[in-house]
Design goal:
Blueprint (H helix, E strand, L loop, with lengths): L1 H22 L17 E4 L11 E7 L16 H7 L7 E5 L9 H14 L2 E11 L1 H12 L6 E5 L17 E5 L7 H13 L5 E5 L7 H5 L2 H8 L5
Parallel strand pairs: 2-3, 2-4, 4-5, 6-7
Antiparallel strand pairs: 1-3
Amino acid sequence: MRSIALFSFTVAVLCGSAIAADDSSQTAERLDVMVPVQLHYLLSLPEGYSDSGDPMPLLLFLHGAGERGSKLEQVKKHGPPKLIEAGQKLPFIVVSPQCGSGKIWQPHQLTALLDDVVKKYNVDENRIYVTGLSMGGFGTWALAAYTPERFAAVAPICGGSEAFRAKALKGLPIWVFHGAKDSVVPLSRSETMVEALRKVGNEPKFTVYPEAPHDSWTETYNNPELYEWFLSHKKR
């Protein structure tokens, strides 16, 4: 009986405190801090680039989970950085950041990176593009939905997102790529986004490689048509 009495007393005290707290007034406060962003990245300037010449298009490349860490050389394993390392010339300022170990791509950090690159280099802000594979494909969707007005066109590869983001992407040219036999990121992740885009009036290009597993990026990035497609679009 004593234990029950103590329990009842405790409940009464806690409830009394809660009621008192609810009765207190609320004040309007403000958080105003600078959030530090640090990203290491590879930068490639195209032939003919000049600080005083014509502005150049920019291609942002987001790698997959396997290239995370602190060794920037890892970013050259796939995609445009791999092609550039092999001697291929791409007609873009190519920016290839590295995501830290155990992290995922964060749109606000990538936005800060783009802001900084635009300030430092002669970038055509009407021709900024983003593409990425796997985790970078998810990052591409997320960044495009975060600032759709910034990009002229985007190309997520074997990624995915939430269908509700399609509304923000209604007017953005998008080319989606995926392997039909992907066992890491199911094809349905891209299909869901393509269907959602079509419902809001977007008509994305959608390429499915019937026999491709998770690696649907090698064929995609080796295809000159992708880069021609990017350059055919300017921001509205």
